[in-house]
Amino acid sequence: MDIITELFSYRQYWAKRFGAAPVLPMSRDEMETLGWDSCDIILVTGDAYVDHPSFGMALVGRLLEAQGFRVGIIAQPDWQSADAFRILGRPNLFYGITAGNMDSMVNRYTADRRIRSDDAYTPDGEGGKRPDRSVVVYAQRAREAYKGVPIIVGGIEASLRRIAHYDYWSDKVRRSILPDSKADLLIYGNAERALVEVAHRLAANTPVNEITDVRGTAFMRQQTPEEWCELDASTIESAQSKQNRHADGDRPAVIRLPSYDQVLNDKTLYAHSSRMFHLETNPGNARPLVQQHGKRDVWVNPPPIPLTTKELDPLYAFPYTRRPHPSYGQKKIPAWEMIRFSINIMRGCFGGCTFCSITEHEGRIIQSRSEQSILDEIETIRDTVPGFTGNISDLGGPTANMYRQRCKDLAVEAVCRRPSCIFPDICKYMETSHDPLIQLYQKSRQLPGVKRVFIASGVRYDLAVRSPAYVKELVTHHVGGYLKIAPEHTEESPLNKMMKPGIEVYDRFKRMFEHYSKEAGKEQYLIPYFIAAHPGTSDKDMLNLALWLKKNKFRLDQVQAFLPTPLAVASDMYYSDFNPLKKIGSERVFSAKGIRQRRLHKAFLRYHDPENWPLLREALESMGRADLIGNGKRHLIPNWQPGQSKAPSRKPTKVRPSRVKKPVREQPLRRRR
Predict the structure, then answer these.
(1) Is beta strand 525-532 parallel, antiparallel or unpaired with respect to 482-488?
(2) What pTM did the predictor assign?
(3) pLDDT tens column, 202-235
(4) E strand or H helix at 140, and its extent?
(5) At the N or C end, where does the chain have fewer CB atoms within 10 A?
(6) Do residues 245 and 347 both lie within one domain?
(7) What is the largest CA-CA distance in the chain?
(8) Interhelix angle 503-519/468-477, nearest 10 degrees
(9) Residue 318 counted as domain residue
């Protein structure tokens, strides 16, 4: 049984005498003003430093400060040399390194692997201020700056690369980020509990290589200690063997995954490794994982125990300035402009959407703040944030409407291995009441000085339709004319691979939305989001989606192509061609991988754009659906191009043979019950 130390029960470090800094220092001059001769901890981030709880480095920095440590920030350093990593001097305890709020590769590249021209987390949105694979580069430079200082990596980039993983940008399997970064310790997921414990142990002179028992951490070791029993899951056969399913009763168990070399050379074993990994994500029953990388092993401890409301509330009450560091002057940081009037009310997501990495990072157990904590933050924004006009831009989190929803039976929750609590059906043990959220909405909009409270986070509509009262409150008071919603697709095959509900649930929510909008006397619209080229999506599926869009008179401006991010289940489907959610080998999954076919899938979402018509005409011809080409209302696209005569040609247009690859025939889909 784990002994969980309450987050704020540690004895504060001696440097607490310096008190809280007006803003965490980014220069020696600021340190001297505070009376510091050194920093205990230096945090390095790929984002600009904004002292706001939505920015990870600010939150953990203020948390460590509350524990009594002197914390400095190095934001977006010049990575060409180690000089920028020496700017605050040698840290007494450790460097904490992150790429920032986003994965650096997602931040820098589009789904078509094109470099983005801007960066929302940089002053004035300037691009190119962080390197590719920032965690690896920063860790190496920090090591060069001061040898012997422990290097601890964390944040979403490190978290999602804790084991061997498919890397979309290089189109190959890469090893864990630990050997590449040469970090001493990796902290994954929400880092507060592990980070505070590790900091206090290092302050007590415990060598970093002896810190091997902290939940939510990963590290390298030579071999499995004798006190552990290894369960061999390095092959499909060994994982299914009865003698490898349980420990010997006297020793704790660790699961050995296929090695890096195995998953590099065998896609079936890669899918198997993915399946084993995702079965061990519940803090209540997850076992440590070990994966060989060369002559050493990557050891991944079980996920952290979620924070309680009592622990979560103080994280948002620290003395944040809630604005960018003064050194940026009048420069604007787009990400801050977007969130400065928004509030995070919860963490985690039990939806389990396969294309999303939130559950791999934050977990499926919802961690909610108290109502009073949230209301207090609204008042803080009202009273202290410049430019506030009375509008709160969002009360949300990974989703808008999972606040205080959790398994009704904690004993059941502790042993559950379901990848989703609401797919294919909502679990009977899941508490789905929206009453606490409705009450929060009502109280927040009644605060003095607050005009409107908008909801910008994505609404999980399969939960919302269970509460007409919630939909009424949302639609009547919290929608600013448009509400973004994400059905993602209309067809069964891709929706099953996404673990998303059928389009009929969206239709039900749409009827409720329109009913309550009319009742409130408001003209409001739903803006649906869809994904192109998701694993399990054929050309025919995209055609059917395009026909649905045309029938419902949707002309999408922004469309999203599937982007495989590390450790997401859908990414593993994309790479391996297997479904890790099922017995490996029982279901193959087709994915659109070629640039041309991925563009075709996006083109179906924007069937109304003349630039896409030549590609769509060719595809429709090859699919035997030339009947959808013409100038009538029943046609998807016209048979003419802008600049050409609209009159049909007397001779049929010659279409060169299609180069669009037809999808491999899939196994019949069976809906899981």
Answers:
(1) parallel
(2) 0.93
(3) 999 999 999 999 999 999 999 999 999 999 999 9
(4) helix 134-145
(5) N
(6) no
(7) 88
(8) 60
(9) yes
